[in-house]
Design a protein that fits this description.
With 415 residues, the protein is of the alpha/beta class. It is built from 10 helices and 17 strands. The two termini are 23 Å apart.
Amino acid sequence: MTNMVNSEKPICPHSELCGGCKYQGIPYEEQLNKKEEYVNRLLEKAGVHPLKKDPIEGCPEIYAYRNKMEYTFGDLVKGGELTLGMHLAGKYWSIVTTDQCQLVHPDFNKILDATLVFCAEKGYPRFGKKFHDGLMRNLVIRRGVRTGELLVNVVTASDEASGYVFDQDGFRDMILELDLENEVVGIMRTVTDKAADAVIADDVRILFGRDFYMEELVGLRFKVGAFSFFQTNIDAVERLYTEAVGLISDLEGKEVFDLYSGTGTISQIMALRAKHVTGIELVGEAVEAAKNNAALNGLTNCDFFEGDVFKVLDEQVEIMPDLIVCDPPRPGIGYKALEKICSYGVNEIVYVSCNPKTLVSDLVFFEARGYKVMYLKPFDNFPFTSHVETVCCLYHQKKDFISVQYEPKDAEYLK
């Protein structure tokens, strides 16, 4: 179990109200124990017994690790003063101002505080979810950890629908005048009158700079758009992906499927050695980002398809894979896709999971189809929250699987 890098700070001042962190006030080693025990209980209950199981890996940094936050404008009590931050624990309609959050870089807290003061002084009302009135909806901040670039996106209703005129120039100037450690490379205003709580753009206006930031991961460069999905904890996911790829016995000359490929991070890591990688992802914007980033890194042996994994495999992809990597969302893989994956009969499957419950359910399915869980290891990428990541390797028992030694190895080509 990895020792924590930072000494523990006093408990977060927002902990009694904010619903963001479940394990505030619990020593980090105890948090790790709870998460590891949770994974072990699920495995034991399901009768899944990995041939080798390593202890949970702690996070490289337990504070200021998040590179993206989506804050909501609201009020703590109905009709109260304007707030900006996270939902009150157990209360969807109430918002707590979280300007001292410990999970983000201090620049995030400075921008949040300055934005709240700016909007309060202007008299801008929060957007009301019940009657869909008011102006201010969200503040989204994104940071390139390795590049030191910041992207600030304020989300409002339209001036016409709200009856208020948002001072775009004033907001831009206010952000640019802040004393920040990182560099603001883009300031945006996203306008939407949709009822949905999600940030869905009707109109996007660049008030300063650009609508993306750059990031670096395992020696590759990534262009991350304002609305693109990207890994939330760069240092932790770099370690996670490096270990996951390091479990593959041999990538040389292999045809690889990367299922639920997102923006293609794992695909591109494998493409450094594999013959060819086919990535499949449901979200169209993520697929476009994957294509653009592969081109940015000069990788020509990757192809990315948009759509449901089962449908794309069944209808569009005629390639036969040598090995398969899966990194599904929280609901897991799904019955049809599981059947399709098993039908290829590949020797190796690497599974990266963000939800132990669906991971274990899927592992039961794989074992019923002749696979054995050779290796499993949990990772804590999100300290103080209940989330647990896991990587595992499966090997088909039609071969002499006992002779295969699955140990995370140093991937020299990633250094």
